[in-house]
Amino acid sequence: MAVAAEEKYELITRRLQEVLGGDSIKAILAEGRTPKCYWGSAPTGRPHIGYFVPLTKIADFLRAGVEVTILLADVHAFLDNLKAPLELVAHRTKYYKHILIAVFTSLGIPTSKLRFVEGSSYQLTKEYNLDNYRLCAIVTEHDAKKAGAEVVKQVDSPLLSGLLYPGMQALDEQYLGCDFQFGGVDQRKIFTFAELYLPRLGYAKRAHLMNPMVPGLGGGKMSSSDPNSKIDFLDPPEVVRRKIKGAFCEEGNTAENGVLSFVKAVLIPISQLRLERIRGETGADSEEGQTATGDQRPFALDDAPEGTVFSVFRKVEHGGSLHYQVFEQLEQDFAEKKLHPKDLKTAVADCIVRLLEPIRKAFEESEEWKKVEQLAYPDPNAKPDKKKKKEKVYHPPPPGKGKNAKQQPPAPTAETDVTTVAASVPAGEEVAKPTVDETSQ
Predict the structure, then answer these.
(1) Which of 151, 260, 297, 440 has the maximal Cβ count within 10 Å?
(2) Is residue 425 included in any domain, yes or no?
(3) Is 209 helix (H, G, I), strand (E, B) or coil?
C-alpha cells in the first residue's frame, strides 16, 4: 500500500512548478482514501494553447485515482474587471465547456470521469453568500488586492468586484469539497490567501498544486487578451505557422523562449503520456485513450529511436533529423546552436497543427458550438443590422378626396350668390341659373 501511495503521489506532483501542502495529500493516499481536486477557469477571453499544460496534467490525476472537478467560474468571469460583461458570460461558459471537452477528448482523457460545475450553481446560495460576508468582515483591502494581483485585471481605480474575487476562489475549495486546488503558478497569491483565511472561518486548509506558465510567443505570459502572444485552439494551420514563424526564438537563447518552452511544457508531456499509454501505463484510468480523437502518436518521426519524445526533421545535407528523449538534450543543442530556430519552429508548428486538428474538426461538425461561438465572441468589426424601414401601406382616399380627385362645385342654395358658384366652376362650363320655384322656399 505504501509503495502504491508513493507512486500515486509521484504521478500527482510530477512536472509541477510548486506544491504547497503536499503532506496532506500523502496522508490521504496513505490512508487509502481518494483525493479530490478542482481546477477552475473563468470564461473570459478565448482559451489558447497554453491551456494544454493544465489539461494534460489532469490525465496524471485520473491515473492516480483522483476525483477531478472542472469549475466553469462564470461569476468570477463577471467580477473580473472589464473582461466579460454579464450578458456574454452565459454564452462564454457554454463555449468553454465545448472547447474543454474537445481538448480532453483529443488528449485521450475520458470526460465521463470529470465533473463539470458552473460557479453560479452554488455561489448564489444563501449559505455561500453568508460565508462570503463572513470573509469580507475579516479580510483587509490590502490582502484582497494583493491576492488577486496576478490574476484580476489591474486598473487605476479598482472595482470592489475584483477584491471579492480571491475570497470567492478560496471558498470554492470548501463548497466543491476538494482536498487540493490545481492551477497555474500565477495563482500562488490566491492559494496562500486561501490557506490563511479558510481556517479562520473554521474550514480545513487545502493543498495547492501549481503548473508552470507557458511564455507568450513574443516573451512574457501567454494571454487571451494579447492576440500576438497566443495561438487559439481554433486557429487554422496557416495561422499557426504564421504565428510560430514570427515568434521570438533567437538562436542560442534559451531564456524567455516561448517556442522552446512550449516543447518542454506541452509537446514532451503529451508525447510521454502517449508512450506510457502504448505501454499500458495508465494506472487507475483504464479508460484513457479509448475515445481519443486525432493522431495519437508521440511527436517523434517514424525512424526515431525507441523512447523519443520529440523529433526535428532535417534533410541529410543539413545534418539529418534530430531525436530527443528528454528536454535537456534539446535545450543543450539549441544553446550550442546545433539546432537552428527555423528547424525548431517548423517542427513545433507541425506538432501544434496535429494537436489542433481534432479540436477544429469537432468545432466544424457542431452547429450548436458554432452558434455559441458567434454569441460568445461577436465580431467587433461587424456592422450592426440596420433597422428595416416600415413599409408604407397604401390606403385609398375616400371618394372625392386625394390630390387627383376632380373638384366638385358646391351645390347652390338660396343664400349662395350666383357669381360665387360660377367662380368655382371650371372655364367652359355653364352655371345653371335658379328658377323662381327653387329660390322661393
Answers:
(1) 260
(2) no
(3) strand
Given a contact cutoff of 8 angstroms between Cβ atoms, the answer to whether 198 and 174 are in contact is: yes
Interatomic CA distance for residues 62 and 428, integer angstroms? 106
Answer whether residue 103 shows pLDDT above 90: yes
Q: Look up the CATH number of the domain holding residue 204.
A: 3.40.50.620
Total domains present in the chain = 1
Contact 190, 170 (CB under 8 A): yes
Is 393 inside a domain boundary? no
pLDDT of residue 435: 45
Distances (CA, A) of 322 to 31, 327, 347: 46, 12, 11
Q: Cα(17)–Cα(13) distance, rounded to whole angstroms?
A: 9
The stretches of 67-157 forming alpha helices (DSSP H) are: 74-79, 86-106, 120-123, 126-136, 141-147
Q: What is the pLDDT of residues 378-409, one digit of tens each?
A: 987 777 656 555 666 666 777 666 666 555 55
CA 13-14-15 angle, to 5 degrees, is 120
Cβ-based neighbour number of residue 369 at 10 Å: 21
Q: Give tens-digit pLDDT for 174-206.
A: 999 999 999 999 999 999 999 999 999 999 999
Q: Name the residue with cell 470521469.
A: 113
Does 218 map to a domain?
A: yes
Which residues lie below 8 Å from residue 71, measured CB to CB, with a gap of 6+? 38, 39, 40, 41, 117, 118, 119, 172, 176
Inside any domain, residue 347? yes
Tell me how crowded residue 188 is: count the other CB atoms within 10 A of its CB.
18
Nearest to 201 by CA among 151, 127, 148, 143: 127
What is the four-CA torsion angle of 364, 365, 369, 373, rounded to 10 degrees? 10
pLDDT > 60? residue 2: no
Structural domain range at position 298: 2-376
All three cell numbers of 86: 454579464
| pLDDT at site 27 | 98
User: pLDDT (tens digit, 9 = 90+) per residue, 137-173?
Assistant: 999 999 999 999 988 877 778 789 989 999 999 999 9
Question: Do 213 and 50 contact (CB within 8 A), yes or no?
Answer: yes
